[in-house]
Amino acid sequence: MDKLPKIALPVIFGLILVVILFSKSTVTIDSGQAGVLYKTFGGGVVTDQPPMGEGFHLVAPWNRVTIYEVRQQEVMEKMNVLSSNGLDIKLEASAWFEPIRRDLGKLHQEKGQDYIQRVLLPTIRSAARSVVGRYTPEQLYSSKRDAIQQEIFDETQKIVSGQYIQLNEILVRDVTLPPTIKDAIERKLKQEQESLEYEFRLVTAKKEAEKVTIEAQGKADANRILSASLNDQILKDKGIDATLKLSESPNTKVVIVGGSDGLPLILGNN
Description:
Layout: H1 8-24, E1 26-29, E2 33-39, E3 44-45, E4 55-58, E5 64-69, E6 73-82, E7 88-99, H2 104-110, H3 115-132, H4 137-141, H5 145-160, E8 165-176, H6 179-229, H7 232-247, E9 253-256, E10 265-268
Antiparallel strand pairs: 1-4, 2-3, 2-5, 6-7, 7-8, 9-10
Helix pairs in contact: 3-5
């Protein structure tokens, strides 16, 4: 060190200083991220310009850049809520969301990086308690799951829409009822299903009976019409027609005209 020229030390320290300043003056923003610039001597957070995009950026060493995830994200929340009759319900829901890119500076200035805990999660909890409180445990367990999900989304959306957050979806993952209530609901649903199956069998049997009755009535009507249309002359004519057709057979036979009923008699050689 003593052997170095006197000018070498300032140069070395200068290079070190340049390296430090350069490292503090560069920012690399990855895919799916954006940066909010804070100007120490220029008014603080920059809110009147678009956030910094992906890639390499040079900034003054006395300024700061805060990086945010701007892709769609998911947050899960488990909560206890009360049904319309005051029963404790465990609800698990998730939200798909993303910060609004053009308002990222305002989000950083007003809410900060922990905006999920400050804004989004409390809003979801409040909306879930409000919505679930309108329904009975039976409705929560069965038919109203989709309606509840949509209502929680709508109520959450009303609040976060002015908080620089874009809410894309609310998903109700699970609804857990007290075991005794769940068992009672399942028994009731099973009884209703069995009742519907019994009613279906009754309707099917009734229709089958009606079908048999209609078929029998149709046959009876046909026989009555046929009987009413037959008389001795028609029977004789049909007998003569049948005899004539039989006489055309190649088998040996003797036809005697004039039987007791006026019909021809056919005698074979057997």
